[in-house]
Amino acid sequence: MHDNRPLYQIIFDDLKDKIEAGLYAPEAQLPTEVELAEQFGVSRITSKRALIELEREGLIYRKRGSGSYVKLQDETDAIPYNGFSGASPIVSMILPYMATKEFEYVVAATDYLDAHGYYLSIHNSNWSKEKEKELLSKLAKSGLSGVILYPLSTISNVDVVNAISSNGYPLVTMDQYFDSLNISSVVSDNYTGGYLAASKLIELGHDRIAFVSSVSIEYRSSVRDRYLGYCQALKDHRISIDSDWIYTDFYREVNEKNAKTFYQALLTKLLSKKVTAIQVEHDHLAVDLLNNALDAGISVPGQLSIVGFDNHEVSWHAEVPLTTIAQNYYELGRSAAELIVAGIENSGSQPRQIKVPVQLIERQTTGPRPNREDMFLSRTD
């Protein structure tokens, strides 16, 4: 029978069962991340997550440079005072959801915080504005040293974020930044990413390039910066920016039942405007458009080129591997941890923004602009 548990959960459950059964006695050393990865045939990131979750459960403790050991169950779970303003040495990270790329943030932040005497707790807002607000308010009052926030958007909960940071509580945003607030942040260089994607398409001869995002341009700073990079590339190459090529803010209109109809209608609309390439806000949406284009008999990249953003796993597993912009998730998490520690240990430090470089990954969804007379040909004609 197929095991639907996440890979890290399989390792976690196996080790937990062995600890509870006494196969690993108190103070016994567990296999290393590398050994577990080889044993279960997974990545080191996956095995590391299993160990982190065991530590959070209070079943093991880790010695930096030594390994992971089974914890005596009568030991206190209290975390010693670290000397910073009476706060416990715990930093919380609020994420909008948990997936593979989000866990890279966790691994990176944990690595940095471990080296500086801090623990990391993870919280999931589950794409809920209300849940994010509740977590921010509760965590800031709970005696934790600071919070790393991956915001749902940069137009939500601005009041709460401002109140917390204005009170001097250490807060860093990751992935996005609030234009109007004086808060440290670490983000990918989304502007350059948008510029690189558009420039590649222009280099291939495309001069009618659409920009597609399921959320509005102003909803997230990351989307806005990608869009502005796209616009600047067109401007630098003397290509007019046509608002008819910009399609955004439709996520409320799409669901499992109507997705195919919706995306194929969107593709038909863009092709009717003689668009030959689409620059998409993120890889999942880009792959949805790619799959629907292929289902409709539209050749990619023969008739239509598509570029995504993120270098998510779906981008290289797509039927036609997706050209995309790669973000460095590990460096985003590490830099966020660096900024929050600086804010905790030096309350007088000035807020700053770190931009993490991005990279164009060219795969098979981009090609030369098709001849105008061939643009509307498809296998269904």
Beta content comes to 15-25%
Just name the CATH architecture of the largest domain.
3-Layer(aba) Sandwich
Estimate the helix proportion, in percent: 25-40%
- Written as H for each helix and E for each strand, in order along the chain, the element string is HHHEEEHEHEHEEHEHEHEHEHEHEE
Question: Can you count the beta strands?
Answer: 14
- What is the topology, as strand order, of the major beta sheet? 4-3-5-6-7-13
Mean pLDDT level: 88
Question: How would you summarize what this structure contains?
Answer:
The chain has 381 residues and is α/β, with parallel strands linked by helices. It contains twelve helices and 14 strands. The chain is 40% helix and 16% strand.
Describe the protein in words:
The chain folds into 3 domains: 64 residues, Winged helix-like DNA-binding domain superfamily/Winged helix DNA-binding domain (Arc Repressor Mutant, subunit A, Orthogonal Bundle); 125 residues, Response regulator (Rossmann fold); 147 residues, Rossmann fold, CATH 3.40.50. With 381 residues, it is of the alpha/beta class. The C terminus is likely disordered. Helix 10 links the parallel strand 10 and strand 11. 40% of the residues lie in helices and 16% in strands. The two termini are 44 Å apart. InterPro entries: LacI/GalR-like_sensor, Peripla_BP_I, Tscrpt_reg_HTH_GntR, WH-like_DNA-bd_sf, WH_DNA-bd_sf.
